[in-house]
What does this fold into?
Amino acid sequence: MKRVIGITGGVGCGKSTVLSILKNHFDAEIFMADEVGHEVFEKDSSSYCEIVSHFGDRILDCEGEVLRSVLAEIIFQDEAEKVFLDDIVHPFVIDRIRESIDVWMKRIDELYPDDSEDHLFVLETALMFETGCESLCDEVWGVAADESTRIDRLMKTRGYSEEKANAIISSQMPEEELRNKCDRIILNNSTKDVLEEMVCRMVENDI
It folds into this structure.
């Protein structure tokens, strides 16, 4: 059986740890949507040209590379500019994900023609529902944690100040909304061992 599982959640919740567990225990195919999003800004691509044509040279460094921090500041201050950029980035990412899932499924069918084993394709993105990526998944799992736990992790692992951690968390989808949208919630307030046991149980109960 082939399954596409979406993993989402706010910063500091532990999505990367969940991905590591799925990879190590179930040899899951991991797809990081945010990494593909970077390809939108590659020089001389059609998306790059469209973005530069709209925003101008103010978003470029001396070598013509997009200064994403400058672009982020622009769209943070102007909702219309954010919508313009999202309308370029999101369809690009969706197309790449769909292509990757198709390639993966064909490869699994070739390797296991009798479909005797279970296989996971795991799609990770913080903007699962904002981009429409949930439509590509059989099931979406949300990784959640108490706000105090998230702030503590961000301060320890990323060196953020408490104020910065709070600001980032406040800008993301509220946990209540995440719980309502996801098929399952992984509550990650404890140790890695506890999380590992929880994730493995969730997968194995379905497989």
